[in-house]
Amino acid sequence: MQTAIPVPRKVTRPRADAQRNRERIVTAAREMFVELGPDVPLDDVARRAGVGNATVYRNFPDRDALVREVVCSVMDRTARAARIALAESGDAFAALERFVHVSADERISALCPMISSTFDQDHPDLRAARERVEELVGEVMDRARAAGQLRGDVGVGDLMVAVAQLSRPPAGTRCPRGDRFAHRHLQLFLDGLRAPARSTLPGAAVTMEDLRRPCE
């Protein structure tokens, strides 16, 4: 009687086409969430992504899962932009400026309401992505501050609030028209961050913890 030799199990990896479909879904969802908000029908997301409805639900069992993936993907790209800024060996403030403009193009301002209202902010994936971004942005700012180029009374929260607010189209305007002015207004803000400061800001530098603290 022969003893059966166990066959090692192969590690299952997503097929290339399955991974591409997932990426198409996330890209389409991000575009539509920015344009129409988080309540856009998932069938419409599937149509824009060029996949079937079943493919969307196979990858994302519910809306919260898809929204979370979109937000995390935007944060991941923002973190990548911060790493690129940190890797630059030239002008530290110029690197900070480039990071801010790239972050604005991610349209994180349109996704902020989803972070606060759509699902659990303490989900492990979201928390990890958020902490990664905050740490890297802090390092980019510290580098510019150490070079004597960034005023000392601003924090990560100040920067992220400005990016979110200034990249959001003003009320009563069409989105494309608002986008035309976003980078202009961000540059005006960035000029105000340069050291030496020309004024004294009221209050203390804003941290991300300040922004997450419930209103009293």
From TrEMBL:
Xref: Gene3D superfamilies: Tetracycline Repressor, domain 2 (1.10.357.10)
Keywords: DNA-binding, Transcription, Transcription regulation
DNA-binding region per UniProt: 41-60
Claim: Transmembrane helix is one of the keywords in the record: no
Record-linked SUPFAM superfamilies: Homeodomain-like, Tetracyclin repressor-like, C-terminal domain
Domain HTH tetR-type positions: 19-78
Entry-linked InterPro entries: Homeodomain-like_sf, HTH-type_TetR-like_transc_reg, HTH_TetR, Tet_transcr_reg_TetR-rel_C_sf, TetR_SbtR-like_C
Top-level taxon in the UniProt lineage: Bacteria
Region Disordered, residue ranges: 1-20
Protein name: TetR/AcrR family transcriptional regulator
Species of the source: Streptomyces ziwulingensis
